[in-house]
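Example 9 (inverse folding). The structure is encoded as follows.
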């Protein structure tokens, strides 16, 4: 039995020892906002927060989350509301197909705790593990810089 909190809510799941965190989130819990792209820890689409740290959930066993706080895109804003980071992405046209976007947003949230400065070079470096096939990154970097800048102000 695995017990952890997802977006603040306690969860108990029966899972095999080899189950991945991404599968636990998507299948039994139905949190399909955490996307599955490469499944080999390369694309970052599956990024979630594990005790506040950004992790690639395809590269984490579900049992490694025992007792932890997991944050997914579904917990970013209250239903019907937008998080400031989402609004920044909208303003800067930082998404097209949107497949990478949940992972980008979760990675950006962790940047604040990591003290990443709101500067393009630093944000690009911090985003090195999150790939986007559509946007060319300009809008994503601009949105994250704007949000980090506002948070640091
Ligand atoms: S699906 Fe996890 S990094 Fe690509
Ligand atoms: S918006 Fe399509 S992969 Fe990033």
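The amino acid assigned to each position is listed next.
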């Amino acid at each position: 039995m695995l017990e952890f909190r997802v977006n603040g809510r306690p969860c108990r799941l029966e899972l095999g020892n080899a189950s991945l965190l991404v599968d636990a989130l998507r299948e039994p819990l139905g949190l399909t906002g955490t996307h599955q792209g490469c499944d080999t820890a390369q694309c970052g689409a599956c990024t979630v927060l594990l005790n506040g740290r950004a992790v690639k959930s395809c590269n984490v066993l579900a049992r490694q989350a025992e007792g932890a706080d997991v944050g997914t895109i579904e917990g970013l804003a209250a239903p019907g509301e937008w998080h400031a980071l989402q609004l920044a992405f909208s303003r800067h046209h930082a998404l097209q197909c949107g497949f990478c976007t949940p992972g980008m947003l979760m990675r950006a949230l962790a940047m604040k705790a990591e003290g990443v400065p709101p500067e393009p070079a630093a944000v690009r470096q911090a985003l090195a593990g999150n790939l986007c096939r559509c946007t060319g990154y300009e809008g994503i970097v601009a949105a994250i810089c704007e949000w980090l800048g506002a948070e640091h102000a």
